[in-house]
Specification:
The complex is a heterodimer of chains A (352) and B (463). With 352 residues, chain A is an all-alpha fold. Chain A folds into 2 domains: 84 residues, no CATH class; 258 residues, no CATH class. Chain A has 15 helices and no strands. With 463 residues, chain B is an alpha/beta fold. Chain B folds into 2 domains: 297 residues, 3-Layer(bba) Sandwich (FAD/NAD(P)-binding domain); 153 residues, Succinate dehydrogenase/fumarate reductase flavoprotein, catalytic domain (Flavocytochrome C3, Chain A, domain 1, Alpha-Beta Complex), CATH 3.90.700.10. Chain B contains 12 helices and 18 strands. In chain B, strands 1, 2, 6, 7, 8, 9 and 18 form a 7-stranded mixed sheet that branches. In chain B, strands 10, 12, 13, 14, 15 and 16 form a 6-stranded mixed sheet that branches. In chain B, a hairpin with a 2-residue loop joins strand 8 and strand 9. The chains are: A mainly alpha (352), B alpha/beta (463). Chains A and B meet through helix 1 and helix 4 of A and helix 4 of B.
């Protein structure tokens, strides 16, 4: 692996070329942000790299792309810098969790928590007590939130903008809108140049399936928690109850989205990506897919004898997913959103 | 294996904007079309690859253009820059068809955007290609592929055979191997000769060796030479080329837009002897940058240096190579390889001649020198605040004016009436832009005449 300083220097070299050209400024938020600067610090390069959505339009449109001697390839270099920035901002920094070890660990924990008594019907808590489930997932979720916030703070501190500015309502709305609509992958309606030079909405579509699927699953879990603690309604819930409908819809999204993104990955132009990140990307997609698959199987087979085993597997996968969140591909969402808010903030100040 | 023979209703020689417009229109008309591009795929598109906009007439604001830009204003702008060296009927044809050409381009997936940062003065007159000229070419090539147009790369035309004023067949090198091509009509859209160093030296003498070619290395003017040799009438002064002063550290070819330097009006420009030689503040930079290529070409060793001080920082578009910086004029001189005492004298005399005024580099301000020769008429400010900075300047050639004469049907003149040889783009732009420069007009000529040539070539091929 090349030293980070080399990568940052390469990012800076590219931005100096791009800033003298500016043909790509209509494509995405990266180039207007670049134009607000005359020189580029390491923090600037990290910010711009995290603002980049890897749509690759600028690469295909670049008269300086390889084999030109200037060898400009912004999406690839920014992808490499992004991956390194995830390591840099991660908290605690020493912690690196391999996705598959996390799943194995999750399965072991789920097995250890599991009771041994006979189970009748869809009685989840006969397999693992509610208290054990809440305690385990509560601790892990709290850790994930703390780690995520710490990473965000490390990223934001580099901007030199106070925290109060991040929470400015108008920029929050703009940043959230750009993130939720994936505006920077839209390219004025025709979609991005991924997986290859022809414009396509495929990546945006499958990302929406994945992201909104994830949100729906989160919503399902939250509603279920409220049902349990406020209304004292115990799982399992009826097929047409709110948690099950939300979870099912989200689960379908998490089957279609990750599978679609993975298929695009198989066809993509290797010139525009950092191939070294495949294990990080694919393990995250696989964990999302497996979370959904095991969850839907559990739902479908909860009245059968397979329920006990399925519940343990599902909980193990979810635990594995949660543990890897702060150290895997998931964090791109945190830094991307923060970068979009920062870009909205800079734009709102009338800088370009 | 026998020699390859390409046979097509229409053969287009060239691979830039004009060539692809001709190819797409000829295909629309039902002809089979082959494009012979001498560059490999990654460098396809000639100098269109480096362009970024196209000058468009419009009566009212559009999605990307402000206000209005009428035919009369457009034509009078052309008359002003060419000093009358144009052909009015062809020029008006281009101007009038520019809105329709733009619409047509959009129908093939070409996307436009408002003017780029740093080019606000073009927001009314020029529609910018989203992503620039290479994105434009990508859209064309994608459309060409989908419509069954055959594109052959690394195809260099070496000879044309004509009979009774009509093209019959041609010879080429395909990936270096001799091959033949036949067609019922030929469109020449292969650009000028600005990348042909020998030809430039014939015209400019040894000075040409120090020229830098801003665009593609593939515009060697071979087809232009072949056509003139076969009897095509020529237009445009063969001794003229469009050249601007660019950063002297630019690569010999293909450096494109990023090698431009916009700091000239903010400081002084000196030659090898560290002496000034022209009024750096004569007029607004967009109106003057195109004369500096020639000015630098006339200096000893075809080199000059733009010298600014720290007051100029951030007032001009950033350039790709860093400024050479020093804490004093003497140290800057030695870093630039200039005689130190001479540069100190030049700067001192300049500083003493500067009269007080209100600096504003957006307008023709009242900061000027008095009693200095040559004077600096605007934006004259003492060069006195360290660090001092210098950029080397060299002449950078953009395009040449020599071309073949055409009529309003894009027929190459000199082969008799009813010829099946047509021309579009830079190879015939001299008919309309015989002198000077009008930003984005070359692309308009290419698009309009490309479409005409494609239509007429398909018609000729069907006869």
């Amino acid at each position: 692996m090349q030293p980070l300083s080399n990568l940052i220097a390469e990012g800076e070299r590219l931005m100096v070329i791009c800033n003298a050209c500016r043909y790509c400024e209509g494509y995405c938020a990266v180039f207007p942000a670049m134009e607000r600067r005359l020189s580029f610090t390491e923090a600037d390069i990290n910010y711009l790299a995290n603002l980049c959505h890897n749509c690759a339009e600028c690469y295909y449109s670049c008269q300086y792309a390889p084999p030109h001697e200037f060898a400009v390839n912004v999406p690839k270099v920014f992808a490499e810098i992004r991956a390194r920035s995830y390591e840099k901002y991660a908290w605690p920094r020493f912690l690196r969790i391999n996705a598959w070890w996390a799943v194995a660990g999750g399965l072991v924990v789920a097995a250890l928590l599991a009771g041994t008594g006979p189970v009748a019907g869809a009685d989840f808590y006969a397999v693992i007590s509610h208290e054990a489930m809440v305690a385990t997932f509560g601790v892990v979720t709290a850790f994930v939130v703390v780690a995520g916030v710490a990473g965000f703070l490390r990223f934001w501190r580099e901007s030199g903008e106070g925290l109060a500015r991040f929470f400015q309502l108008s920029t929050q709305i703009q940043g959230a809108r750009d993130a939720l609509s994936l505006k920077n992958l839209k390219s004025s309606g025709v979609g991005c140049t991924y997986p290859d030079e022809q414009h396509s909405q495929a990546r945006r579509l499958f990302h929406h399936f994945t992201f909104y699927g994830f949100l729906l699953c989160l919503a399902s879990t939250s509603v279920a928690a409220v049902y349990h603690s406020v209304f004292e309604l115990q799982a399992p819930y009826a097929y047409f109850s709110v948690p099950v409908v939300l979870g099912t819809l989200g689960g379908i999204g998490l089957l279609i989205g990750p599978l679609g993104l993975y298929r695009l990955k198989l066809r993509r132009d290797p010139a525009i990506v950092d191939l070294k990140q495949d294990s990080m990307d694919i393990s995250f997609l696989a964990l999302l897919f497996l979370t959904s698959l095991t969850g839907l199987l559990l739902l479908g087979l909860r009245e059968t004898a397979a329920m006990g085993a399925l519940l343990r597997i599902h909980l193990g996968v979810v635990l594995g997913l949660l543990l890897t969140l702060p150290y895997g591909k998931f964090v791109h969402g945190i830094y991307r959103l923060a970068a979009l808010v920062r870009s909205a903030l800079e734009t709102s100040r009338g800088q370009h | 294996m026998g020699e390859q023979i390409i046979d097509s209703d229409v053969v287009i020689v060239g691979g830039g904007n004009a060539a692809l417009c001709a190819a797409l229109v000829a295909r629309e008309s039902g002809a089979s079309v082959t494009v012979l591009e001498c560059a490999p795929p990654e460098y396809r598109g000639g100098n269109s690859r480096h362009t970024r906009n196209m000058r468009c007439m419009h009566e009212a604001p559009t999605d990307v253009l402000t206000d209005a830009y009428t035919e009369e204003e457009y034509f009078s702008d052309l008359l002003r820059v060419t000093e009358g060296e144009t052909t009015e009927n062809l020029a008006r044809l281009v101007i009038r068809d520019s809105p329709e050409a733009t619409r047509w381009m959009k129908s093939y997936g070409v996307r436009f955007q408002p003017s780029l940062g740093g080019t606000l003065h073009l927001g009314r007159t020029n529609a910018f290609f989203l992503g620039g000229g290479k994105a434009l070419m990508n859209a064309y090539y994608l459309a060409a592929g989908r419509r069954g147009i055959r594109v052959i790369y690394n195809a260099e035309v070496t000879d044309l055979r004509m009979g009774a004023g009509k093209f019959e067949s041609g010879r080429m090198l395909l990936d270096g191997q001799p091959a033949e091509f036949r067609a019922r009509a030929l469109v020449a859209a292969s650009g000028g000769f600005e990348a042909n160093l020998e030809w430039l030296e014939e015209v400019w003498g040894e000075a040409a060796r120090n020229f830098i070619v801003r665009g593609t290395p593939y515009n060697k003017g071979k087809l232009l030479k072949l056509l003139m040799h076969l009897g095509a009438e020529s237009v445009g002064d063969p001794k003229q080329c469009h050249a601007v002063a660019i950063d002297g550290r630019a690569p010999k070819f293909d450096g494109g837009i990023v090698t431009r330097l916009d700091c000239v009006p903010l400081g002084i420009v000196v030659n090898k002897r560290a002496e000034r030689f022209y009024d750096e503040g004569e007029d607004l930079w967009p109106k003057r940058y195109a004369i500096w290529g020639r000015l630098v070409a006339q200096q000893e060793d075809q080199i000059a240096w733009s010298i600014i001080d720290s007051k100029a920082t951030g007032r001009f578009m950033p350039s790709v190579f860093p400024a050479i910086s020093a804490p004093s004029i003497a140290e800057l001189a030695s870093a630039l390889g200039l005689p130190a005492r001479s540069l100190e004298t030049t700067v001192r005399e300049f500083n003493q001649a500067v009269r007080p005024g209100h600096f504003d580099h957006q307008i023709l301000d009242d900061c000027r020198t008095e009693g200095l020769n040559p004077p600096k008429s605007h934006w004259a400010q003492a060069i006195d605040r360290a660090p001092f900075r210098g950029y080397p300047l060299r002449p950078g050639i953009t395009f040449t004016y020599l071309g073949v004469k055409v009529n309003e049907r894009a027929e190459v003149q000199g082969f008799g009436s009813g010829t099946n040889v047509f021309a579009a783009g830079e190879i015939m732009a001299g008919n309309i832009l015989g002198k000077g420069y009008l930003a984005g007009f070359g692309m308009t000529i290419g698009a309009v005449f490309g479409r005409i040539a494609g239509r007429e070539a398909a018609r000729a091929a069907a006869q």
